[in-house]
Specification:
The protein has one domain (about 1-80). The protein has about 90 residues and is mainly alpha-helical. The chain has helices at about 1-25, 30-40, 40-50, 55-80.
Amino acid sequence: MEGSFGLLLNIVITIYLVIDSRKYGKSPVLWGILGFIFGAIALGIYLIKTDRKVIGWIITIISIIGYIALLLVILLGVALIMGGGFS
């Protein structure tokens, strides 16, 4: 369920970037690919580049914090599985 939500979110971001990038004279193919691969971080950077800086920085910072938190959870899980627990 969570994986399908992430994929759906990336598809929505991709569609938005492809449609909106034409209004600002940006490459829709490039922003579509970036939106699908990087998701919210690409959306934040796109908003910064199209002079919507406040919301762009908010989305970028929240996305980066989320990715760092996910990485820490994964590393903690690997450490616990490998036997390097909190003993």
